[in-house]
């Protein structure tokens, strides 16, 4: 059963520990944990809308209190997706700029046919606003002649209004939901959307905040919590999808202790 209940193995998520905010229920700030969990333990099935199109959500944010970004525009390919049958692509987008002071940030959205970073993709729709808050739907009708890979791209435009060449304390939020025609061949593989171990359960341990920042002590505490609760939740495998500097002896010790406890 999807959802969460502590130590109840009728549910997919059976344990939770929040070393960041001590909240009692699982949450995912930007989707990375859900992405990794789906790869490892997803039960299969594809999100479909009422028209039978595949649906995927993306989100991005930047909150850099006390920091700055140089004036100019940066472009990012947020996601690529494969359109396998004719139909309509819809990309729902939403943006908010909470940056304080005179500086400003604009965000622009583009839909390309082809891969943005390779070859010569063709822009099929775009929206280039200058307001701080907006919603907009990109759309494109796909024919049999333009099936294949599409790219959803954003441009983040940093506008310096204080003549120092920088945008101070940038603070923006962006989300999107993509609907596209997708009916992939299975090649006899069964459910192409299942994870590596779809019948396993999940225990979530949050050690980084919304900006992807945390402390070594928080990570170590999270690892030690897993070791302590290994038998409570029948934990056999631990996946750490995070990065940082090397050579931290406390972290090395914690990971080695997890291995000694029988956790892969």
From TrEMBL:
InterPro entries, per database record: Peptidase_S8/S53_dom_sf, Peptidase_S8_subtilisin-like
GO molecular function: serine-type endopeptidase activity
An annotated GO BP: proteolysis
Coiled coil segments of this chain: none
PANTHER family to which the protein is assigned, alphabetical: PEPTIDASE S8, SERINE PROTEASE APRX
Similarity annotation: Belongs to the peptidase S8 family.
Protein name stated in the entry: Peptidase S8/S53 domain-containing protein
